[in-house]
Amino acid sequence: MAYGWDESAEAWIASMGESGDFSRACVLDKPMLQRVRLGDFTSALDVGCGEGRFSRMLRGLGVPTIGIDPTAKLIDEALRHDPDGNYQMGRAEDLRFSNDAFDLVVSYLTLIDIPDAAKAIAEMTRVLKPGGRLLIANLTSFGTAGDGWSDEPQPRFCIDHYLDVRELLSEWDGIRITNWHRPLSYYMRLLLDEGLILRYFDEPRPYGGKPAVADKYQRVPWLMLMEWEKP
Ligand SMILES: C[S@@+](CC[C@H](N)C(=O)[O-])C[C@H]1O[C@@H](n2cnc3c(N)ncnc32)[C@H](O)[C@@H]1O
Question: Residue 23 belongs to what domain range?
Fold first, then answer.
């Protein structure tokens, strides 16, 4: 089977279930929602919304939200869960919205999936109102540079070729997709070059789930959260 989101959509929907995978349900959702609650936002764009789980959470907090994603099967699934929601096909690199349209733009574990991160970050900034926030959850670059766990002489996680940008072929639970490894400085430079101001940064700890899984998430820098303001 080929690598890609179209081919992996059904397996992705199954892996998300109702409450999301470990990274979402046990690490990222709480701090992401906390940032949203602090912001008093009136209009959100969820870029790469997938099957719409986080868009539904934003709507549950009373924030009118548009979710966009290039994968038709995921947009169909988002609409099936939330027929009154606004879910549209679209790519981060070419957002079909006017300048200054939203006071919150969310990228929830999508920067690693987006082929042209520079265009995507420029577009996400363009559609933000001045004073608006770009809320990003991403895999850490230390994690995406990982070669995985080795068990000898004792369990440890190996990182290599950290500074080299590269495509990663990722495969788990029937999902086969391409991700990108980019060092942290690559993302930071793009965000700073857009004139954005960093207002919040965290590498959240797991807050539940199976202890053995949580232990692995604490040993390896795996997930991060950033909130940037458009001046
Ligand atoms: C790891 S999933 C995250 C989905 C959702 N945000 C979540 O957290 O459940 C990555 C998503 O990015 C989408 N995607 C891939 N390329 C994209 C692009 N160029 N622009 C926007 N989204 C993209 C995929 O279709 C997929 O739904």
Answer: 5-142+158-229
CATH code, 88 = 3.40.50.150
Pocket test for ligand 1, best of 68, 69, 79, 177 (most atoms within 8 A of CB): 69
Give me the DSSP letters along 73-136.
HHHHHHHHH-TTSEEEE-BTTB--S-TT-EEEEEEES-GGG-S-HHHHHHHHHHTEEEEEEEEE
Could you tell me if residue 151 is inside a domain? Answer: no
Tens of each residue's pLDDT in the chain, 231 residues: 578 999 999 999 999 998 999 999 999 999 999 999 999 999 999 999 999 999 999 999 999 999 999 999 999 999 999 999 999 999 999 999 999 999 999 999 999 999 999 999 999 999 999 999 999 999 999 999 998 888 888 888 899 999 999 999 999 999 999 999 999 999 999 999 999 999 999 999 999 999 999 988 998 889 999 999 999
The residue whose CA has the least distance to atom 14 of ligand 1 is: 48
Residue 93 lies in a domain: yes
Structural domain count of the chain: 1
71 lines ligand 1 (CB under 6 A): yes
Ligand 1 atom closest to the Cα of residue 116 is: 19
**207 CA distance to ligand 1 centroid (A)?**
24
pTM over 0.85: yes
